Amino acid sequence: MTPGAAAVSVASSHARDRWVFLLLPLLVLPVPFLVNRYIQYVLNLILVYVLVGVGFNIVIGNLGQLAFANVALFGLGAYASGILVVHAGWPWWTTIIPAGLIGALAGILASLPALRRIRLFYLAIMTMAFGELLRWIYIRAEPLTNGSMGLAVPPPMLLGIRLQSDRSKFYVFLVLVVVMVLLTSRLLRSRFGRAFMAIRDNELAAAAMGIATDRYFVLAFAWSGFVVGVAGSMYTALVGHVTPEAFNLLELILHFAIVMVGGLASLAGSVIGAIVLTTTPELFRSFPGVQELMLSLLIIGVLLFLPRGLVSLLARRWPLFHERYYRE
Amino acid sequence: MALLELDSVTVQFGGLTAVAGVSLSVEPGQVRAIIGPNGAGKTTLFNAITGHAALASGAIRFRDERIDRLAPDVVSAKGVRRTFQNGGLFGELTALENVLAGLHTQVPTGLFGVLCGLPPARAAERAATARARELLELMGIGHLADQPARALSGGQQRMVEIVRALATRPPLLLLDEPAVGLAPAVREQLLGVIRRLVREDGIAVVLIEHAIEFVMTVSDRIVVLNNGKVIADGTPADVPRNRHVLEAYLGH
């Protein structure tokens, strides 16, 4: 057997093993029948934050840009859904895609400074300011958002069914998460995803390979915005009350931590990060003050010993967790 | 008909003239070396050809078509491909993924097909992967396919970068210091690769190089740049005897 043939067989076994990832959602199907209402709520929150992390990771992990508009995209998705339900009377499920599109639009807006070669720290502070600006707008646009009191949104409707319980929301969220993660995985494992990472690693060389860098820049931001916008819509359906406070800088740090603790530029990492960072504060809920401490220690500890995030720990044992950006 | 034609190309950065009225032409199947002291404007000339640097004046034609106002990705798609002086690989991607990125414009998939996982899009991606593996095999580095580019040795990176640039079978290849820092054996191998490309595929190669014996063996014509100007243009036999060249190199 030639070395090349060996490489092919390794790679195709990798392709075969990826089916495991499709089994995971099936495994969690019975979980809502085994847990109490509180844990169910936390599980739903995890699903929301999986998409928050997946979307954010595209821009900071795969495209490698210090763009911190994520909390703005999340808030816009949440408010878009809430406003459409409350003021336009749309059933919640019809607001999911509009919320995603608003997020995508805001993502494109956030990519514009980067296209004008405003990068690194400059892009970071500009996109953070964008998030704060939006928070100011949520507070001031009282007729639409009910200002700092927050917008109360009735229970979500899906095809005429009222999703009253967190259990029913869980299954809807699970479908949304599976679909969005699958689409994102397909995008990243194509010439589009490779273009994002080529730009990240060497923008001049990417252009020399015939990659229209500006176009892929905008695409990465738009897709990221879409995914996070959908997460925002799910958030509205979950909590039923959208306030400007929910989209502050602390929330942004949580988003950032999900990506970093899980693993930059790793789809599986985003999922792991969302699970760990949503669960940790909940575990210490009954010990006031300890929550923040544990969260901080977790972030510092993981990044000190695993700079590539928790996913690198799994990748050591199971090569499956090494992302491959091609089809075989 | 010349494949590539530079007509009084001038490139300026602020007040500094990096390339001053350079004219030269490259024929199909020709190996042309550009030599000259550091800061002579060699890499800037490459950047001008590939659209990475804007011209202050002059014109660049590729297959009789003006390419000097085009963006780098458009120039690349027309068939002008290059490597970079300090290594232009995508470090976090594997050798295979680097070559696949090199094939970017030749993977006929749209966003819709990719997101929906349509069979034609999948098939196109698979075919590209097979092609990329084959290209690495042909260069004798198939075993490196799944290594991250940053983990490869300098010589291996150089080879992968050349495979990546050649993936689209371009008629013109620009190599920026391909032999620098390579072990003699690897250098021999590189020499063989360049000769094969020229002989079998009729590719024209322009290379910037300091290793003078490498240049002498491989090139059909040598251009000498100094302070952004062409001071000599001739065969490997003529150039070393040129008075201007001796002055530039020896400082007389």
List keywords for this structure.
heterodimer, A: 328 residues, mainly alpha, two-stranded antiparallel ribbon, 15 helices, 71% helix, globular, disordered N terminus, B: 252 residues, alpha/beta, Rossmann fold, 2 domains, six-stranded mixed β-sheet, four-stranded antiparallel β-sheet, 10 strands, 23% strand
Q: In summary, what is this structure?
A:
The complex is a heterodimer of chains A (328) and B (252). Chain A is mainly alpha-helical.
Structure characterization notes:
The complex is a heterodimer of chains A (328) and B (252). Helix content of chain A is 71%, strand content 2%. Chain A has 328 residues and is mainly α. Chain A has a domain at 37-247. In chain A, the strands form 2 sheets. Chain A has a two-stranded antiparallel ribbon. In chain A, strands 2-3 form a two-stranded antiparallel sheet. In chain A, a hairpin with a 2-residue loop joins strand 2 and strand 3. Chain A is globular. The two termini of chain A are 19 Å apart. Chain B has 252 residues and is an alpha/beta fold. Chain B folds into 2 domains: 4-87 and 171-250, Rossmann fold, CATH 3.40.50.300; 90-151, no CATH class. Chain B has 9 helices and 10 strands. A 6-stranded mixed beta sheet of chain B has the order 6-7-8-3-9-10, sandwiched between helices. Chain B has a 4-stranded antiparallel beta sheet with strand order 2-1-4-5, with helices on one face. In chain B, strand 9 and strand 10 (229-234) form a beta hairpin. In chain B, helix 3 (95-102) packs across helix 5. The model of chain B has no long low-confidence stretch (mean pLDDT 94). The chains are: A mainly alpha (328), B alpha/beta (252). Chain A binds chain B through residues 2-4, 7-8, 10-11, 183, 186-187, 189-192, 194-195, 197-198, 200-202, 204-213, 219, 265, 325-328, and chain B through 50-52, 71-73, 76-77, 81-82, 84, 88-93, 96-97, 100-105, 107, 109, 111, 114-115, 117, 121-122, 125-126, 128-129, 132-133, 136-137, 142-143, 145-146, 164-165, 168.
